[in-house]
Design a protein that fits this description.
about 625 residues; mainly beta; five-stranded antiparallel beta sheet
Length: about 625
């Protein structure tokens, strides 16, 4: 990340704080930036620009020309008074004659939007810089360990699909590898996408790496947040994992991070945590503590490294023990599990699983018991037919390549008491099993299903029997997918089906807003790809925390190719049912549509229900990756 961000983010012009709904995200609202002449001069110098078009009013052009030093500046404007005074009309000048453009002065937002459109029409790789105040900022970073076979990120201009921004947008793309950084720019029109590949910039991955993307524009999320997520695919040996990028900015270098991972998740191999330091703000002498069970090691961090990593081998660690990490800093760590051939079958070389870290204390928390009033609310929920924070797990047929499971062994405090509600193919409730989980590892609900007709399981904490206080529990729930033949597996953060409730439930809010608890809808994003024999599917579940829920959902799956052209297909999903929607079946001409790039953006939408959607990718050799889709 450019160091200017650290300086600018120390003094952002931020919108007034908004009141959050109970249970809403703690993430800050959007950040607005300023861009100085000195900053733009440095950016022009970095790309070696010598010929610059300046889109500005007359007075500002003179000031900018003086501030930019020795570069040759050509004045252009869209103001007729400026054209009469000698400026070229910005629509008539040949933009191919310039290495870059700079926008400044009056009507800055209008000028900048126009300049991006004109530059995109001739060369989407040439940057358009701006001088002024008050642009919105969004960004995302995706880190991975050293020695990966390939690291890729799909960048999608989603701002039209989610925020109605129909402008072309300019993205600053950065690739970090050890002490090195490379940077380039790309202008994307709405719904266009661009694949960032580590190997296009560094021939070998000898150090921990990261892909980062930033966008600045007059209007992006309308100050809702500053999230921008790449869809990342990390390849290792003959396996892959899919994950989304992080978005940790504007935090103190003394921000404390703790995370733990269950030991059993590494069958044969090692766990790896990436430690970003993109702004190089980690103070000298700061340390990382890594734990494997009760064994602790402390290592000093390298303040000059953009990304570091911590590697912990399984080495006999008990299945019910934890890997853990503690450090100070920010940037968004990812964890990975790298397993060797002894964990697998079918001649496979290795397996990689991964996800972003979730803040969780390493040491066990005190168990805070629910008070009498909360216990009464749990009992009332049961009587009213609600299942609190349940996680919907599809039950596949025995001959299916894939099996899905639930795991929350890193929950803090630990939780062993669960309820499992089962549903048949028509979504009818078959009954409930109370289960005490005494063995570490994933819970595959097929093993508990009553009879052979169960097709979906809702797994929830047995809140009433456990007597746990709702607030303060770190559930750490994950969905796991395993390839039955090879043993390859992947993990993603498991979002609950506390949704489609038809009501706001006092004391137990929807994680975003109670409006979404009452009025369910789906607008989520991922990626589609078909290169190298990869097959992309979306596992879609239509479920609810209300057992009386009966809505059938029509889900539309739209794939945009790199140029932003869409094709769509749809599936119908009854209540408490699921579908594995393979894109090459929903969209038979998928490969032709994606073209030589073989990658594109995926949107899943439904006006009927708030659907749980997971991206599933299969390789011809029996590797599988898993990642939840997300909205903005």
């Amino acid at each position: 990340m450019l160091k200017f961000l650290s300086k600018v983010l120390d003094r952002p012009s931020t919108p007034a704080p908004r009141r959050s709904a109970p249970g809403a995200s703690k993430e800050p609202t959007g950040t607005r930036l300023g861009s100085s002449p000195a900053r733009v001069r440095g950016l022009l110098s970095e790309i070696g620009a010598t010929r610059v078009l300046v889109h500005a009013d007359r007075a500002t052009f003179a000031a900018v020309q003086g501030a930019l030093g020795t570069v040759t500046c050509t004045w252009a404007s869209n103001q007729l008074d400026d054209v009469a005074a000698g400026a070229a009309h910005v629509e008539d000048i040949d933009w191919r004659s310039f290495d870059a453009a700079v926008v400044a002065g009056s009507s800055l937002a209008r000028r900048y939007r126009q300049a991006l459109r004109l530059m995109a029409a001739v060369d989407a790789t040439r940057p358009v810089f701006w001088i002024g105040e008050g642009f919105e900022f969004c960004g995302g970073t995706l880190s991975a360990p050293a020695k990966m076979t390939q690291v890729e990120g799909l960048l999608f201009n989603h701002f039209d699909s989610f925020f109605g921004v129909k402008d072309a947008l300019q993205y600053r793309i950065e690739i970090y590898h050890g002490p090195e950084i490379k940077r380039y720019y790309r202008i994307l029109r709405p719904n266009q996408s661009h694949v960032i590949r580590l190997s296009d910039h560094f021939a070998a991955s000898e150090h921990p790496v990261a892909l980062a993307v930033f966008v600045e524009h007059p209007v992006l999320t309308r100050d809702r947040h500053y999230r921008l997520r790449l869809v990342g695919d990390v390849f290792w040996k003959d396996s892959l994992t899919t994950l989304h990028s992080a978005h940790e900015f504007n935090r103190s270098p003394s921000h404390k991070v703790e995370f733990r991972l269950p030991g059993w998740l590494v069958r044969e191999g090692e766990a790896v945590l990436t430690l970003p330091n993109y702004d190089r703000l980690a103070p000298a002498g700061s340390a990382l503590e890594a734990l494997a069970g009760s064994a602790s090691t402390v290592a000093l961090r390298d303040p000059q490294a953009f990304v570091e990593q911590s590697v912990l081998p399984r080495d006999g660690l008990a299945a019910d023990a934890f890997f853990g990490w503690r450090y100070t800093g920010f940037g968004g760590s990812n964890w990975f599990v790298l397993e060797n051939e002894r964990a697998l079958a079918g001649g496979r070389q290795g397996s990689i699983a991964g996800n972003h870290h979730v803040s969780c204390p390493v040491l066990e928390r005190d168990r805070h018991s629910a008070d009498r009033d909360e216990q009464a609310r749990y009992e009332q929920l049961e009587r009213d037919g609600f299942v609190l924070e349940a996680h919907p797990v599809p039950l596949t047929e025995p001959d299916s390549e894939l099996v899905f499971g639930f795991e929350a062994d890193a929950a803090n405090p630990r939780q062993q008491l669960y309820c499992v509600d089962f549903f048949d193919a028509a979504g009818a409730h078959l009954g409930r099993v109370e289960h005490e989980k005494v063995t570490p590892g994933p819970l595959f609900p097929q093993e508990l299903a009553p009879g052979n007709g169960a097709k979906l399981a809702l797994i929830s904490n047995n809140w009433r029997k456990a007597g746990l206080r709702f607030k303060g529990l770190k559930p750490m729930a994950n969905l796991i997918v395993r390839h039955r033949r090879t043993g390859d597996q992947d993990v993603t953060e498991f979002q609950s089906c506390w949704r489609n409730l038809g009501s706001a439930v006092p004391g137990f809010p929807h994680w975003l807003s109670d409006d979404l608890a009452v009025i369910g809808r789906t607008n989520v994003f991922g990626r589609a790809r078909c290169d190298g024999g990869l097959r992309t599917g979306v596992m879609i579940v239509n479920a609810s925390g209300r057992l009386a829920y009966r809505n059938t959902a029509e889900a539309t799956l739209t794939v945009f190719n790199a140029e932003g052209s869409p094709v769509s297909g749809s599936v119908s999903i009854p209540a408490f049912s699921w579908r594995m929607a393979w894109l090459d079946e929903i969209i038979p001409n998928l490969a032709e549509h994606l073209g030589a790039v073989a990658n594109g953006a995926l949107l899943v939408r439904s006006g009927d229900a708030d659907l749980n959607c997971q991206l599933v990718t299969l390789t011809p050799k029996g590797a599988v990756s898993l990642q939840h889709l997300w909205g903005y």
